[in-house]
Amino acid sequence: MVGDNVPKQDIYPLAEALQMAEALELDLVEIVPTAEPPVCKIIDYQKYVYQQKKKAKEQKANASKVVIKEIRFGPQTDEHDYQFKLNHARSFLQEGSKVKAYVFFRGRSILFSEQGEKLLLRFAVDLDGFGKAEQMPKLEGKRMIMMIAPVKKK
Question: Which of 57, 70, 85, 149 lies 20 to 30 Å from 31 when distance is taken between CA atoms?
């Protein structure tokens, strides 16, 4: 048995350990059940659970929120439009957002799916210093989607 409330850290029989916990009006909690003999601690279990929840909530609040910005292309996107969207994607990646680039196919333009794939791959290569492709272009219905995550700053 270990803990602040134990007079001497030692091996105690279960009945004696429970009596000690009851005398202090606290709980006997098994910390390492796989050890031989199992390690127990005398603590206020409700307080312990409350502190664990508080820590988890604090960690969740400090966790970074992932923002996804979308950039849409057509299969026949012109060079000027491409450069314009490329600059937007660079700024999004620099601020730490993920970029979801997709080519939207309308009607029969789905016949140009390889053109859309080339466009997305070129987009990923042009953003090489700013972001890294998380997934390769993938056709989902009438959209070909590619995710690009920002590069971690050193």
Answer: 57
C-alpha span between 72 and 88 (Å, rounded):
11
Give the residue extent of every domain in the chain.
14-61, 68-150
Question: Scanning the structure block, which residue is given the tokens 């508080």?
Answer: 54
- pLDDT, position 84: 93
pTM of the predicted model, to two decimals? 0.56
CA atoms within 13 A on the CB side of 21: 21
Partnered with residue 69 across adjacent β-strands are 99
Q: Is 10 exposed, middle or buried (0-12, 13-18, 19+ CB in 10 A)?
A: exposed
Please state, in angstroms and as integers, the Cα–Cα distance from residue 62 to each residue in 55, 57, 143, 148, following that order: 11, 9, 34, 23
CA distances for 95 relative to 6, 9, 83, 129, angstroms: 52, 53, 19, 14
pLDDT tens-place string over residues 42-96: 888 899 899 999 999 988 887 777 789 999 988 888 899 999 999 999 999 888 8
Domain 68-150 has CATH 3.40.50.720: no
Q: d(Cα 83, Cα 45) in Å, to the nearest integer? A: 60
